[in-house]
Specification:
This protein is of the alpha/beta class. Helices cover 34% and strands 10% of the residues. It has helices at 7-25, 29-33, 40-43, 46-50, 100-110, 148-151, 154-167, 190-195, 203-212, 217-228, 301-318, 324-332, 353-363, 394-444, 451-459, 482-485, 489-501, 559-562, 591-599; strands at residues 59-64, 78-83, 112-114, 120-123, 130-135, 172-174, 232-236, 257-262, 278-283, 287-291, 294-298, 587-589, 609-611. A 7-stranded parallel sheet has the order 2-5-1-6-7-8-9, with helices on both faces. The longest helix has 51 residues, at 394-444.
Length: 634
């Protein structure tokens, strides 16, 4: 038996599917173009690790070009620090500069998204942590990036930024690229993603880079101080792997976790450093990030360093007492795709957030308290008044909305047609059912009862006057009495008068005068009004004498053939109809005894008579007379 669902349920499900299709098709490009492009969240098991912790209670110092605190995906998660570039000393007041590269790296670390349920925008590795923004380097678009006098001070600015972050209480510091390498690597643009390597700087920028290359003693001293304070340091391994592949500072300093880059297929990026100080690799090629004006794609070891910084924040949030060396052990012992040759820039392998947390749990001592235990939960950031949407996405949104609307119309047309067809079918069935009920009611209606009218008509007919009975001893004429007369009209009138008057008429059915039975009955008995009405078929007219065929000769002995003949002298002679011609008697004498009875000889009591089927029965038979001339019935 086929399964059938109720029609209202089928219609509701169809409309729901159409609405869901339209809703998903018209979602802004944030969800399907940004959040869905964060392949590293599942590839590095970041989503699984976030079920354990999201980095709450941890402050991460981001030493970069500055962060825009009003960016929708970072609102409420950014602490604006000082500008350490001017005079190689960190200013006392917070910097208001919003760097492109610094904002992009901050979104990879602590981005929490925005919109309904924070389902849109960038989701960082540690969305529960906070970022302390310290400006220590320059974007490639900055006018100061080509000034050798300014770039020469950048290593000291990095050292000042490390010291400031340690004094501000940061548990994890994300260090910048070596300013003495390619300054163009600081740019966050889609062109770098398309080429697969950071853009090269001009000749002027190259001179500025040389002025900042090689690090500084102040930088080395600041790194050692931070490690002694239990601060975890993470740095990009370098983006000059396809060039001279020189060492990159501060990544090359001992104790710093240097990170290389790979793409979504876990293939090492061509620009990543191949130096032996590379500790591990992470997602860094083709990374979707947030900027002060929208979203863009970044390919750099700095992006890979930001991802590992977020994983380190998850470990410090869950196990705050772990030392920088123990955090490094948890990160490097839990990697995937291990490489036997550490000189190829892969280090211990690809980072895995969930496995790193599991490794840290084995390293941690019993009784360690979770960072931020008992702290007040951070309030969710408010939705910005103006969303940061790339203007290039507007045509795609309009196209998706138009396609969704067209699909909605196309899907609703068959649903509407099906509903109209069902409505017409139900209407036709209702009409047919009403007609059948009307016919059934008409067939069950009782036939009109006409018996009451017939009885009223019957009993309202006046009875005719009764006929006087004939004198005793006289015989009614053949035309009005006897057996033949009982089929005439007088018989019917007598019976009618008997029925109408309530008493038998004189002479009816042998009633005596005055109401006793006897005498002649004339007329025909009328049909009772209660008798069923039969079709009036004319009866055939009886003709001939007799009107029926003679009875067949019996082939057995009849009972009256052996019985004695009627006794002589018992009944008086019966007057025959003198006007009728003599007819043969129904009793026929046989043998010699019959002849002797005629001649008066022999024993009359032994006369034998048998039934004569050919005799005429219109009149009574002649009865033999005895010797005295009397009827044998006397």
């Amino acid at each position: 038996m086929p399964l059938r669902f109720p029609r209202p349920v089928v219609t509701t499900v169809a409309i729901g599917l159409v609405a869901a299709w339209a809703a998903f098709g018209s979602v802004p490009a944030f969800a399907d173009g940004v959040r869905q492009n964060e392949w590293w969240l599942d590839g590095l098991h970041v989503t699984q690790a976030q079920k354990t912790t999201q980095g709450s209670g941890v402050t991460i110092a981001l030493l970069d070009t500055g962060v825009d605190p009003s960016q929708a995906d970072l609102s409420g998660s950014v602490i604006s620090g000082p500008d350490c570039i001017t005079g190689a000393k960190c200013a006392s007041k917070p910097s208001t500069f919003a760097g492109i590269h610094g904002t992009a790296m901050a979104s990879l670390i602590v981005g929490h998204g925005h919109g309904s349920g924070n389902s849109s925008g960038i989701l960082g590795v540690a969305p529960g942590a906070r970022v302390l923004s310290v400006q220590v380097t320059l974007d490639s678009t900055s006018s100061q990036a080509s000034d050798a006098g300014v770039t020469a001070r950048l290593p000291d600015a990095i050292a000042a930024g490390i010291n400031y972050a340690v004094s501000a209480g940061a548990q994890v510091i994300d260090l910048p690229l070596d300013p003495g390498q390619s300054t163009g690597a600081l740019a966050a643009s889609s062109s770098s993603a398309g080429s697969g390597s950071p853009a090269a700087g001009t000749s002027t920028a190259g001179q500025a880079e040389q002025a900042a290359a090689g690090g500084s003693d102040a930088e080395r001293t600041a790194v050692a101080k931070a490690l002694s304070k239990g601060v975890v340091l993470v740095a990009p391994a370098g983006d000059n792997g396809a060039g001279n592949d020189s060492q990159n500072f501060p990544a090359a300093y001992s104790g710093v976790i240097a990170v290389g880059a790979f793409d979504k297929n876990f293939v090492k990026a061509p620009f990543t450093s191949h130096q032996g100080y590379v500790a591990l690799t992470a997602a860094g090629n083709g990374m979707t990030t947030a900027t002060p004006t929208g979203y863009t794609s970044v390919s750099s070891t700095a992006a890979a360093s930001a991802v590992v910084t977020g994983i380190a924040a998850l470990i410090k949030s869950q196990y705050p007492e772990l030392t920088p060396a123990q955090v490094t052990q948890a990160l490097t012992s839990s990697t995937r795709f291990h490489s036997a040759d550490s000189t190829r820039g892969s280090g211990h392998g690809a980072a895995d957030a969930a496995d790193a947390l599991a490794a840290a749990a084995k390293i941690a001592k019993p009784g360690l308290a979770r960072a931020g235990a008992g702290a007040v939960t951070r309030a969710l950031p408010g939705t910005p008044s103006v969303p940061f949407v790339d203007e290039s996405l507007a045509p795609k949104i309009e196209r998706d909305a138009f396609i969704s609307l067209a699909l909605l119309v196309v899907l609703l047309l068959p649903v509407g047609g099906y509903a109209l067809m069902l409505r017409r079918r139900r209407h036709a069935r209702a009409q047919a059912r009403a007609e059948r009920e009307h016919v059934n009611r008409a067939s069950r209606a009782p036939a009109p009862d006409t018996r009451a009218d017939q009885m009223l008509e019957f009993f309202s007919t006046p009875a005719p006057a009764p006929q006087p009975p004939p004198a005793r001893g006289s015989r009614a004429p053949a035309s009005s009495g006897g057996a033949a007369a009982r089929g005439g009209a007088g018989y019917a009138r007598s019976v009618g008068s008997f029925v109408g008057s309530g008493r038998p008429p004189a002479g009816a059915f042998g009633a005596p005068p005055g109401g006793s039975f006897g005498g002649d009955l004339g007329g025909q008995i009328p049909r009772s009004p209660l008798a069923p009405v039969r079709a009036s078929t004319p009866r055939p007219k009886v003709t001939g004498t007799p009107p029926w065929e003679p009875a067949p000769q019996p082939d057995t002995e009849l009972p009256w053939a052996t019985s004695p003949a009627p006794s002589v002298g018992r009944r008086p002679p019966v007057q025959q109809n003198l006007s009728a011609p003599p007819s043969e008697s129904i009793w026929k004498q046989t043998g010699d005894e019959a002849q002797e009875a005629v001649e008066g000889e022999g024993d009359a009591s032994r006369e034998i008579y048998v039934w004569n089927p050919g005799a005429n029965t219109d009149t009574f038979p002649s009865v033999p007379r005895d010797n005295n001339g009397k009827n044998s019935n006397g």
